[in-house]
C-alpha cells in the first residue's frame, strides 16, 4: 500500500488521525478532570502518583523491569532514587500532555518525539499494553464514584482507553526510520489493528 502522507504533503494537506477526528471537548474535560482527581488522591505528589503506577506495572509484568536502568536494584527498587525520579518524570510528562489536550497537533508531535527515544530501548507493543493496564488500574482505584466505589465510570474509561491508544500508536510512529506501526512479538499480547487499548484482558497498541 502506498503511503498517503508524502503524497498529501505535496499539496500542503495534513493527514488527520482517526483519534483527532473523533476527539471532543467533552473527552478533553473527562481526561483532565480524572487526571486531576488521581493527583489529588495522592496529595498532588507526582512522585507518589508515579510510584504507584510503576509498582502496579512491575507487579503485573515483572519481565518488563529489564527495560529500565534501575533493573539491578530489585531488592530496594521502590525506594531507590532512580525509580522515584523515573516515576515522577512519567507523571510530569503525562501532566504536560494532558494540559495541552486543547492542541492535539502539538500533543501528537510531542508523543512522537517520546517515541523516538523509547522505541530504541527495546520497547514493544505489549509493553505499552502493560503500561496502559497499570495506569488505568491506578485511575480505577483513585477515581471514586458514589455509584461504583472503585472504578472509573464508563465515560471516563472509554476516554482513557482511546487516549492511551493514541499515545501508544503515535509513540510507535515516532521511531525514526520506522514505517508504520511495529508488530507485536510472537509471544506478546495481541495488539488491535487500530492501536486502541482493549478494555479487558490487556491494552493493545503500544
Summary tags:
Globin-like; 8 helices; globular; mainly alpha; 206 residues; 56% helix
- CATH domain class name: Mainly Alpha
Output the radius of gyration. Answer: 17 Å
Q: What is the β-strand count?
A: 0
User: What does the average pLDDT come to?
Assistant: 78
Strand content: under 5%
Instruction: Tell me the overall shape.
Output: globular
Helix content: 55-70%
Summed up, the domain count is 1
Q: What's the story with the biggest beta sheet?
A: none
- Low-pLDDT runs of 5+ residues are 177-206
> Kindly, what is the distance between the CA atoms of the first and last residues, rounded to a whole number of angstroms?
22 Å
Which structural class should the secondary elements be placed in? mainly alpha
At CATH's second level, what is the architecture? Orthogonal Bundle
CATH fold naming? Globin-like
**String of helices and strands:** HHHHHHHH
Quickly count the helices: 8
CATH superfamily: Globins
Outline the structure in words.
By secondary structure, this protein is mainly alpha-helical. The chain has one domain (22-173): Globin-like (Orthogonal Bundle), CATH 1.10.490.10. Helix content is 56%, strand content 0%. Helix 3 (25-41) packs across helix 8, helix 4 (46-60) crosses helix 5 and helix 6 crosses helix 8. The chain is globular. Residues 177-206 have low confidence and may be disordered.
Provide a brief overview of the structure:
The protein is an all-alpha fold. The protein has helices spanning about 5-10, 20, 25-40, 45-60, 80-100, 105-120, 125-140, 155-175.
